Amino acid sequence: MFTTLLGQEFRSHGRTCLVVVGLDVLTGLLLTGFGMLPVPVLGQSCATLAMITFGALPVPVLCYLGFAYWQTMYGRRGYFTFALPVRGRQIFAAKLTHAGIWTLACFVVVPAMLFLRAWLLGLPGGGTAGDVLDTVRGLIEVTGARFFWAGVAIMIFSTLCLVVECAAVMSIGARSRWNRLGFGAPVIGLVLLELVNQVLSVLSTFLVPVGVDLVERRIVHGDMATPLLEAIRTNGDPTVIGIGSVFIPFLLAVILAVWAVDSIEHHTSLR
Fold it and tell me: Membrane-spanning regions, if any (predicted)?
């Protein structure tokens, strides 16, 4: 049944998601074309806007999927969704898997488009694709291969956790006790989620005894608070930074997902 639900998600929303991706890519390419013009202010501005447009691709896609989630779960189409002979956790899992696949697709399209942008902008000056690759390799070498790819993995994982958290907050906000607030309940929930996330991130950065030595570029264990507070006190650059905040998105995603499943299966109230 899960595969049937997942297939229905792609049939219902796949075309719109492709349109959103296509419009974003087309806009970015158009701006890149203007960026290739030998007009200093216009060219530089359009080149920058193209980079922002490509980099922001996941935002409109996930915003649409969030809107679709609310409409199909708690809008007028919610009556049909909850009439299906399946458990709420299967519906929740199918929608999250669908959103997760589109998120991963965006993380493939974005670097490809940024690479294409850099190559196109370099063409007037005789640049080649090899020059762009050399620039990327140089960035990886400066950052450190392990640190670079770890950062990429953390960014993708954190985004997937954010997808789970936002969907869960919408489902929790639709519980009968908060139903009178309408869409205001999940909005308030998202604000509270951000506050909790920031507080826990700061605390975990100081208290979790795992960090990164920025000088030697390696994982270290021990007191994370003292070096950071000392750097703040002396107005210097920290040499060790705690990475406890990396685990917070996963922790919140698990807790909220469990709460959301309970809300969907036992406390949903359609208006």
Answer: 16-37, 49-70, 99-120, 147-169, 181-208, 240-261
Query: How many CA atoms within 13 Å lie on the side-chain side of 8?
Result: 14
Distances (CA, A) of 271 to 21, 76, 168, 182: 33, 8, 19, 8
Q: To 5 degrees, how large is the angle CA 227–CA 230–CA 236?
A: 100
| Cα distances (angstroms) measured from residue 235 to each of 104, 212, 224, 228, 230 | 39, 19, 17, 10, 8
Is the pLDDT assigned to residue 63 strictly greater than 90?
Answer: yes
pTM, to two decimals = 0.87
- Cβ neighbours of residue 207 closer than 8 Å, sequence gap 6 or more: 224, 225, 242, 244
Phi, then psi, of 144 in degrees rounded to 5:
100, 125
Torsion of CA 170, 171, 177, 182, to 10 degrees: 40
**Percent with pLDDT over 90 in the chain:** 41
First to last CA, the chain: 27
Tokens linked to 229: 């507070």
**Helix 2-35 and helix 40-55, axial crossing angle in degrees, nearest 10:** 170
In tens, the pLDDT along 106-121 reads 999 999 999 999 999 8
Residue 32 near residue 46, CB atoms below 8 Å: yes
